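Bumping with the actual sequence this time:
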Amino acid sequence: MAEESFQERTEQATPKRREEARKKGQVAKSRELASVAVLLSGLFTLSWGSAFFYHHIAETLRYYLERFPGMEVTTDNIDGLAMLATKQFTLILAPLFIILCAVAILSNYLQIGGLLSLEAIKPQASKISPFQGLKRLFSLQAMMEFVKSLLKLTIVGWIAYETVNNETMNLLPLLDKGPTQILQYIGGVSFSLFLKTCMVMVILATLDFLFQKWEFEKNLRMTRQEVKEEFKQTEGDPHTKSRIRSIQREMAQKRMMAEVPKADVVITNPTRLAIALRYEAGRMEAPMVVAKGSGMVAEKIREIARQSNVPVIENRPLAQSLYKLVDIGKPITENLYQAVAEVLAYVYRLKNKGKNTNMRGGIH
C-alpha cells in the first residue's frame, strides 16, 4: 500500500472515475465565464431597452413627485406606499432580471450540462481542518485566483482611467446641456467603459476555463494500480471469474451426462470423440444430439453409455461430422439424415425395437 501511494498519476481517468466525480459535483467549470455572460447580457439589455426603462422609470418618479407634496405620509399608509413603489419598480425591471437569470443558468448548463449534486454542501472534516485550509490557501488554484483578481483589478482600472481621460474635453460642454442629454452622454460613456471591460473579461474567462479544464483533468488522473483495482471491481477478479466459468462448465457437463442414459446410441471415432443421439418418433422431427465431447469427456460419455446399456457404435466420419456441425440440444442437419438413419436402424435391430428406419421417409 505504501508503494501504491507514491505511484505517479499517469493514466487518463476512466469513465467510471469521471462519473463518480460528477456525482460529487466535481466538474470543470469557470465562474468567470458565467459572470462575464451575465454582465454582457445585462449591458446589452440595458442598452437595447434603455428607452423602455427610461420612460417607465421617469413616469413612475414623476407620478410620486407630483403627488408627494400633497400626500400625507403616516405610519398607517407608509407600508402600503412602499409596497406599491416596490411592485412598480419590480415590474419595470422584471425583463432585465429574467434575462440575467436565464443567461446565468444557460452559461453554467453549457459548461457542465444538467447536474444536481448535494455533495459539495455536505459537512466535511476537511473543510474545517487548519492543515487542509493552509493547503488550499497555497495551492495552484488559490494562486490562479489571486492572479486573476490582480489582472482584473489592473485591467479594469486602466480601462476606466483611459476612458475617463479621453472624455475630459467633453465634460465642459455638458454645462450647456439639458438633463436628458447629460444622461444620454453618461449612458454612452458607461456603455463604452463596460463593453471594453467585458471584452477583456471574456479573454480572461476563456483562459480561466481552459485552466480549470486542465486542472480538473490533472486531478482526475489515476495510477496504474487504481486502474487495475477499478477494473477488478467493474469486471470482477479474473481468478474469481475463471472459477465461476469452471463451475458453470462442470454443471453443464453434469446436465449433459445425465442425458446420456436416455440416448438411443453413442457414436464414436473410436476413442477421441463421442456423440450421444436420441430420437423419439412422432415427437421429434430429427434425431437430437444430447451429449458430445472429446478426450476425457468422450471417455466419460462412453463409460456412462456402457453402464446404461446404450449401444456404442464406431463411425469415424459420422462422429466427426456430428461433433463439428451439431450443437448439444440441437437436431442433426439434413445432410446427416441418411447416415444417422442407418445407424439407428442397426441399433433398433440389435435391440429388437422396431423396423428399419429410413431417414428420408421415417424422420421428418
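The C-alpha cells above came from a reply further down the thread. Residues 144 and 208 are 8 Å apart (CA to CA).
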